[in-house]
Amino acid sequence: MNNLIIGLVLAAIGLGLTRAPIRMYRLSWTCAVIGVWLIVSPWVVTAGHSAGAGLIWNNVVVGAVTLALGLAATRLAMAVEPHHEPAG
Question: 3, 46 in Cβ contact below 8 A?
């Protein structure tokens, strides 16, 4: 259930970043945070029982890719962020 919810959240953020990048660019850092959560979630969510090796490997690989792409998107968003010059 955790992976389904996280996948839907990532899809919504991705859709928002493609449809309205000017308004959504500040949310790009959340993809990196979600990537970290995906990496650690098999051990946190399954505290009462053990997760299978397939689930762990899937979450670690998808989490690492999500983390890397989230950091790249954050860096790009910071590069295009409008800089305000002081008035005067």
Answer: no
